[in-house]
Amino acid sequence: MIQGIRHSGAKKVIWKHSDLIDLENKLREWPKETPKIIAFESVYSMCGSVGPIKEICDLADKYGAITFLDEVCTANIAHHLPLPTSIFVQVHAVGLYGPRGAGVAEHLDYDVHKAAGQSADPIPGTIMDRVDIITGMTFVEIHAPNHLLVFIGTLGKAYGAVGGYVAASAKLIDMVRSYAPGFIFTTSLPPVTVAGAHASIVYQKTYNGDRQLMQWNVREVKKRFAERGIPVVPGPSHIVPVLIGDAAQAKQASDYLLEKHGIYVQAINYPTVARGEERLRFTITPGHTLEQLDRVAAALDDTFTVLSIKREADWAAIGGRCGVGSEVKETVKPVWNDEQLGLTGPTVVAPRTRRAGEARRVDRHAMDVARQQFEGLLGPVSTGNVFSSPTVPHGNSGLRMRTGAAGRRPLEIPTAVPLAATA
């Protein structure tokens, strides 16, 4: 995103992080008809905060601005957009939020989108219906005659593949090709990569369990860290940033965790974060086991003791930093609430962290839906009586696929189970 701004040659005005008052004051300085881009993110990957998406869209409508989230470099074509346009890109959130994994915009209207199921029709009044460019979706719906609706998607991160895509009208695609030199010289993705991404997207849209389990594991890790006084920068998302506050100590902690405990976690220093806010950034997945969660908490506790790194009480004693050691932590509510995680109601189905030795499991229904997308290429799937539950362990699917012309000998592909993208 920064490179796009630099290459555009446009005037840059920096607004304070998620500060709506500062943003509006800066927007007031320009006539409404002047092309403007509000560049921000949905999930900020180094602190775990979530941008005020609805409020920013309100300001964009009020002041005739284009909203741009995260890291897809379209800033260099902004001055050529002929219509009022909102650009919505959630690369850090796609696959991890929402009942279909469409991202934070979908999650903000969770119940409405859950009730809509897999319908591709826009839902009036939702945040997703207000924005015009959304990442990670698989359909294009022109829902307003005076707006551009474009989907910019990443196939990496939660979907576990590589590459990305832009889906829009022929005129807008032609404009992107003309004004984005990085796109002009990009080679098309191999069919096998596209097929893998396709299966992953279909699976994630159908099965919500991995998203729920990931958020549950994040809660468990944050709880274990808090019990040991490990200072976690408070945030509502899945990001787990542990405050170190010193560049040298952050590097030492990263090295010590790897050498002593066999745990790799990247040290984050300036300019990625401000000086004095250096941190370790932990990435938690639904694949982590209960034993791994316990081990990383114990290892980090040992690291803080050996290297004499400030704990939460130490930060509180000096007034706090980044929300650590202050009352702000008490006001942070997770994006995923208890009801969405299945922790409330008459039938509580809480996510369960698997133990060491337990196989990763995939959802049978979502697996079947994803596999059906490839029947024209691979032929139909015949299944024996191998399923005894809605989920099956990876590597024991019992699938038989007929490939090529009908009548060829069935091939057993025991590992050809579409896995969740975070596997």
The level 1 CATH classification of the largest domain is Alpha Beta
How far is the first residue's CA from the last residue's CA?
A: 28 Å
| Domains, number | 3
Q: Portion of residues in helices?
A: 25-40%
User: What is the C-alpha radius of gyration, as a whole number of Å?
Assistant: 23 Å
**CATH-defined superfamily of the largest domain:** Type I PLP-dependent aspartate aminotransferase-like (Major domain)
User: Going across the major beta sheet, what is the strand order?
Assistant: 3-4-5
Give the tally of β-strands.
13
Structural class: alpha+beta
Helix segment tally? 15
Given the C-alpha coordinates, what overall shape results? globular
Which architecture name of the largest domain does CATH use? 3-Layer(aba) Sandwich
Order of helices and strands: HHEHEHHHEEEHHHHEHEEHHEHHEEEE
- CATH topology assignment of the largest domain: Aspartate Aminotransferase, domain 2
Percentage of residues in strands = 5-15%
Short description:
With 423 residues, the protein is an alpha+beta fold. It folds into three domains: 2-206, 3-Layer(aba) Sandwich (Aspartate Aminotransferase, domain 2); 209-331, Aspartate Aminotransferase, domain 1; 361-412, no CATH class. It contains 15 helices and 13 strands.
